Amino acid sequence: MSQFAAMDDGQLNPPDSKIPQLLSPNHDGAGQLANNKKEYITSGFESGTSRPPTPHGPGLPANFAEVVSGIYRSSFPLPDHFESIKKLNLKTIVTLVENEHSRQFKKFIKDNGITSYVMPIIANKDPKIFTSQNTVLEVLRILFNPDNHPVLVHCNKGKHRTGCIIACFRRAQGWSNTAAVAEYIKYSAPKTRVLDRKFIEAFDANRLCELVDRVGAQYWVPSNLSERKDLRSTPGCHLNGNPKEVGECDGASALVLPSDPQQIYGLATCKLPS
């Protein structure tokens, strides 16, 4: 029996107690679509006080950044952002919260042929309630699959849930825990969470080693997105293509990541057999 309940509009609604299992892991741990049909998924409003931020006007969403070439992060895209997002030519959007997609968002996804996943990540506010690593792995398998690129991953504000997922992505790439947490702080400050940092540190990046090695993701880096004026948001402190940009944001000068990639990737977490 399907894990999804059919909605009146023909879309799929994942059960409240389960995460959408849209990927079928094969023998080497790589995820793949169970079928080639695009599935557009929505679910109920997120329980809690977190809501998408007020749009700052035309441009890209708040906390938008290029993680690596073909992978982007942001807050929840709103109608004011659609024109700019369209220029990314997205194939996939991964939503990390259970907010019901607006009619405009559903139309944007359908009109642009985007595959949409809703894979809720629990906010790390209670040490007894947290997202399983299996769920994190499912999200990361989508991000590490080049067939899904360009892909945008987002939560409501692009800070904590998205920050944790991207930090785990960085750990799988081979970043040290210190560097991964520093990037998390860059986007979540001044409201960082100790439980988020513990969550990032506890992530077992070795479970993705074979996939990362097979697609060469340890060598993925940002493109020259910061030079594309047509994709700049307003204000423009969201791009991650150039580490020097971090210092241009208020209060972020102490969080500048090393400009030498070897200083970031120097402590690889993967221990592949020789």
TrEMBL record:
Domain Tyrosine-protein phosphatase per the UniProt entry, residue ranges: 63-212
Record-listed E.C. numbers: 3.6.1.52
Molecular functions (GO terms): inositol diphosphate tetrakisphosphate diphosphatase activity; phosphatase activity
Enzyme superclass (EC): hydrolase
Keyword list, A-Z: Cytoplasm, Hydrolase
Disordered: region residues: 1-60
A GO CC term assigned to this protein in UniProt: cytoplasm
One Pfam family matching this protein: Y_phosphatase2
Domain of life: Eukaryota
Domain Tyrosine specific protein phosphatases: start-end pairs: 134-167
UniProt subcellular location: Cytoplasm
Catalysed reactions listed for this entry: 5-diphospho-1D-myo-inositol 1,2,3,4,6-pentakisphosphate + H2O = 1D-myo-inositol hexakisphosphate + phosphate + H(+); 1,5-bis(diphospho)-1D-myo-inositol 2,3,4,6-tetrakisphosphate + H2O = 1-diphospho-1D-myo-inositol 2,3,4,5,6-pentakisphosphate + phosphate + 2 H(+)
Family classification: Belongs to the protein-tyrosine phosphatase family. Atypical dual-specificity phosphatase Siw14-like subfamily.
PANTHER family: INOSITOL PHOSPHATASE SIW14, TYROSINE-PROTEIN PHOSPHATASE
Name this protein carries in UniProt: diphosphoinositol-polyphosphate diphosphatase
Native source species: Coccidioides immitis (strain RS)
